[in-house]
Amino acid sequence: MTSHPAQPYDALASLIERELELVGQRRLDELTLLQQTRAALERALPETPPEQAGPALERCRILHKRVEIELVRVGEMLMMELSHVRQAQRAAHGYAPGMTRAPVVDTTV
């Protein structure tokens, strides 16, 4: 039984689809391992893909672009959240009691 020539490319598209899910769920720690798996699969592919892989490669291209867009979106959301945290820290600092300086003792008298 022989595998279809496009099978590894379909598997690659499935991995990229999973990357998209992980990014959307902000499960970035799992993303690294999946990217390593994808890189290993990519290294095992022939330099010139078979003609039958065309549709799967197009799907990979589209999915990869979606992953990039999602990473930008998640990055922007994280920056907004960080901005809110900093703003809350400044507000909390404003409510903190003032620092009192220890009295200075004049030792020259």
Number of strands: 0
Largest sheet: none
Number of domains: 1
Percent in strands:
under 5%
User: What is the share of helical residues?
Assistant: over 70%
Shape: rod-shaped
> Number of helical segments?
3
Mean pLDDT over the full residue set: 89
* Uncertain stretches of 5 or more adjacent residues: none
- What is the rounded distance between the termini? 102 Å
Q: Rg, please?
A: 27 Å
Order of helices and strands: HHH
Structural class: mainly alpha
What is this structure's SSE topology?
Layout: H1 7-24, H2 28-44, H3 54-95
Helix pairs in contact: 1-2, 1-3
What would you note in describing this structure?
The chain is 71% helix and 0% strand. It is mainly α. The chain has one domain (7-90). The longest helix is centred in the C-terminal third of the chain and has 42 residues, at 54-95. It is rod-shaped. The N and C termini lie far apart (102 Å). 9% of the residues are buried.
Labels describing this entry:
109 residues; mainly alpha; 0% strand; rod-shaped
Can I get a quick summary?
The protein is mostly helical and 109 residues long. It has 3 helices and no strands.
